[in-house]
Specification:
alpha+beta, Deoxyribonuclease I, Chain A, 8 helices, 6-stranded mixed β-sheet, 15 strands, 28% helix, single chain
Length: 323
């Protein structure tokens, strides 16, 4: 009888533990508001395609991809740039899925209909997708003018996924976008600002918060934030104009005002150009639904290859607050 009672108690304890583990993680903001924590990362990982593989600054692609698959599984929402190369991209996704199991959702691309390489983007989420969309930018630097360094070899663009808190889609969700803008020609990049902003406007709503991730190839170091004529302010202004019912927040200066936040160099104190971003936006008429509590630059330094990419990542801790 004692043995039966002991087994029953263990069974009840096991069920209680599993119930807790399966519940959405809930924590609270400083004001006591309950919210779901999101660990978000935006990372250009540089896996160039085809003959351009020789230009990857960090070598050993199989090793880097395996490490990235392991490390990216520590986040809840991952936006990747420059996963052009099929094999490393597949290894990263397989590594994340191995750690996450069935709670794994992904969209990649955009994929062109012509002979260009894919857009090199991936958006990976622990939270289910309600719907997804993609867009290929209509203009890019020409191989005729820039040779192998031209963006026109790839179908660069933007991905969108609307994520829900859980499989029952009991929440209106968050509209998440990841992009990689033109690297060579400023005028082309500025035109892409408009295409990106229009795409965001088409697939968002004032009733839902927004996250924007990616390599925007637009300098946002303090001197550019202070210069109202800079491309940084053109980018911010273009996005704000497209979603006038949202408050747009660049998380780095919002939480690390005055600090550089450079992402283009892994060696050296300043960190280079700040060109990788996480933006959050919530409706003007409501309290913010996305409450960022911290933002960091992660260089992902590595003993074997120096660093896992030629970019550093931007990562943020965000509370997803209920409506």
């Amino acid at each position: 009888m004692i043995r039966i009672q002991l087994l029953r108690r263990r069974r009840v304890a096991f069920i209680a533990v599993m119930t807790v583990l399966c519940l959405p993680r809930i924590t609270r903001a400083a004001d006591g508001t309950p919210g779901m924590p999101l660990r978000v990362i935006s990372y250009n990982v540089q896996f160039l395609p085809g003959v351009a593989r020789v230009a990857n600054k960090r070598k050993q692609p199989q090793y880097r991809a395996a490490e990235l698959g392991r490390l990216m599984s520590h986040y809840d929402l991952v936006g990747l740039n420059e996963v052009f190369d099929d094999e490393p991209r597949g290894a990263i996704l397989a590594g994340v899925k191995q750690h996450w199991g069935d709670a794994f959702y992904v969209i990649t691309g955009p994929t062109p209909s012509d002979d260009r390489f894919n857009g090199g983007l991936a958006l990976i989420s622990r939270h289910p997708f309600l719907e997804t969309h993609s867009w290929i930018y209509t203009i890019a630097s020409s191989p005729k003018d820039y040779g192998l360094r031209a963006d026109g070899y790839a179908a660069k663009g933007v991905l969108h996924a609307r994520i829900a808190r859980d499989a029952q889609a009991s929440d209106a969700g968050i509209d998440v976008f990841v992009t990689h803008l033109e690297a060579r020609v400023a005028e082309i990049r500025h035109q892409q600002f408009g295409e990106f902003a229009n795409f965001v406007a088409r697939h968002s709503s004032p009733s839902r918060p927004i996250l924007l991730l990616g390599d925007f190839n637009t300098r946002g170091n303090p001197e550019y934030r202070e210069d109202e004529t800079s491309a940084y302010h053109l980018l911010i202004g273009t996005i704000k104009k497209s979603i006038p019912e949202h408050r747009l927040l660049d998380l780095w200066p919002a939480l690390k005002d005055g600090q550089d936040g450079g992402t283009s160099e892994q060696e050296g104190k300043p960190g280079g150009r700040r060109i990788d971003y996480i933006f959050a936006a919530s409706a003007n008429k409501e309290p913010p639904r996305l409450k960022a509590t911290d933002v960091r630059v992660n260089r992902f330094l590595d003993e074997k290859v120096g660093a896992l990419s030629d970019h550093s990542a931007v990562e943020a801790d965000i509370l997803w607050l209920p409506k």
